[in-house]
Amino acid sequence: MLLPQARFSALRALRAARTTPSITASTSALARLLSTLAVLEQRDGKLQSSSLSAIAAAQKLGGPVTAFVAGAGVKGTSAAEAAQIKGLEKVIAVENEAYEKGLPENYAPLLVENIQKGEYTHIVAGHSAFGKSLLPRVAALLDVQQVSDITGIESEDTFVRPIYAGNAILTVQSTDAIKVLTVRGTSFQGVETTGGSASIEEGSDPNAPLQTEWVSEELAKSERPDLGTASRVVSGGRGLKNKEEFERLIVPLADTLGAAVGASRAAVDSGFVDNSLQVGQTGKNVAPQLYLCAGISGAIQHLAGMKDSKVIAAINKDPDAPIFQVADVGLVGDLFEAVPELTEKLKQ
Amino acid sequence: SIDSFGLRILVPVKRVIDYAVKPRVNKANTGVETAGVKHSLNPFDEISVEEAIRLRESGAKNQSPMKVDNILALSAGGAKCADTLRTAMAMGADRAFHVDVGDSADGGPEPLTIAKMLQGVVKSENINLVLLGKQAIDGDQGQTGQMLAGLLGWPQATQASKVEIKDADGTVEVTHEVDGGVETLRAKLPLVVTTDLRLNTPRYATLPNIMKAKKKPLEKKTLADFGVEDKRRLKTLKVTEPPARQGGGKVENVDGLIGKLKELGAL
Q1: Which residues form the signal peptide (chain A) (predicted)?
Q2: Is the CB of A215 less than 8 angstroms away from the CB of B173?
Q3: Given Cys at both, which of A326, B90, B188, B263 links B210, Cβ 3.0 to 4.6 Å?
């Protein structure tokens, strides 16, 4: 079902190349059928949300989409889960404990070998810690200039991405034969996780040596929705004063709304919450239906991570705080009074 | 691959528009205005320089099993990069390379080109540890360190929040930020590390150190010295302002807030 679509897109591209002789830079890439490899991230056999955004972006490119997953015993777990996703041509799986932690020193050569074997024109991964660490290494091995954290696809070689903490939007054309892309999760959604029946095929395994040893991890455990994909986010900043107040005020409000908890850099640096909850240029990008924040002034770096939210609400005692310039609704007031009152009234 | 028992550190740094400045897109929609705009050392690169100096200090106090032989700072850009390198040397780097690539509105050579150049520097200067920022706050690409590690075939640790030299054989443990928490990795030198905000708090250069830095060696280089050309694979089609977001005004109290959120369909 996808193949005719791919042929159409390639034909269209060839036609465009013929009628406009000035476009010559990427004719060699256009001469090949567009074919995309979506690199999936899995943890303990479960697909991570970055995998779905990689597939969503891959599907937007228009050609057939192959998914790739590697780790311990993945064929019965994450690869089987991926095979159910609607619109995938096939899932290439490599079962090897050595890839379980997704460490780039051996995962990059593994990917490069499978990319070359499959002759893909586009390689897509989510812009998660996994994708950010792995894909540039892959791009360098392929001698390709990666395009990072894209928020839009204009054509098979033209992509949109924010620069300068989202203060400017760059539209860029890649002249590389293989396009290596990481994609922003909040910009690529809507994958149907059921109804597909892709075949699971064995990938090739170069068994490259692993130069790093995985020692340990400490993950913040939370029953709340994942910050990156939650439909509601409640964030706190320096105005909360300390960890106890953050937990006393922000957490119950988040729980009342079924929201994920986020924080500004100031709140993270002051130790109110774990680093992984930081929203902003150097933390997570979120674009929920509702972003409600208290005690956050709205520095450029914070706005970079949340200004694509559908509705922004802010509580701050400083009427001139920059956050009010982007908030759809602002309440100037003492958060120590307003937040508990809001929580109580929302419970009713 | 370790010839002596010391650390020979390379710290690439980038001169970028200061983090506190709100960049403006130029009229031609080809980039952002840079003329007359305050520039500084990329914040993540400041953290890299600081970490290199801390490794030296802990080596000197015998708190680390390896001593630092040399810290080389490097920047590729126009003439004003020299100021950035003097700052790095005032903080404590021993010497600097300024790779003159001229001034360009489009952010300079691409990460792959920079990674190839750094590969050349690593070889010619016999470097065994490269500390880079996790991303430059202008292009926000976050690629150079990983690309360099790939080209060199070295292990990499990205977004480091703790770097610890474990033994005299060059075993290094790095704690780094991942989604949902932190992960600790162990690798042997040579190694590429990219630094995250929480690795350290960079020191200010003191006046006597700024004076001393003026006497430290700063060598001019070109990409060609490392066998690299400034080939561009990405073509900027346009740079535009992000869609403006209009604040929706203020409400008097919590009831007003709830009412407005219901009106907007957010509750």
Answers
A1: none
A2: yes
A3: B90
Alpha-carbon gap: A251 to the closest alpha carbon of chain B (Å): 17
Tell me: domain A232-347, CATH 3.30.830.10, correct? no
Separation of alpha carbons A204 and A207, rounded Å: 9
Residue-wise pLDDT for A73-90, tens only, equals: 999 999 999 999 999 999
- Of the residues B254, B255, B258, B262, the best mutation for testing chain A's interface (the one with the most A CB atoms within 10 Å of its CB) is B254
Q: Note the residue count of chain A.
A: 348
A167 and B238 within 8 Å at the Cβ level: the answer is no
The ipTM estimated for the assembled molecules is 0.95
Contact state of A130 with B179 under an 8 Å Cβ cutoff: yes
The architecture (CATH level 2) of A32-202 comes to: 3-Layer(aba) Sandwich (3.40)
* Sign of the torsion angle spanned by Cα atoms B57, B60, B84, B132: negative
Over its C-alpha atoms, chain B yields an Rg (Å, rounded) of 21
Give CATH 3.40.50.1220 domain extents, chain A: 232-347
Count of CB contacts below 8 A, A vs B? 255
A81 in Cβ contact with A73 (< 8 Å): no
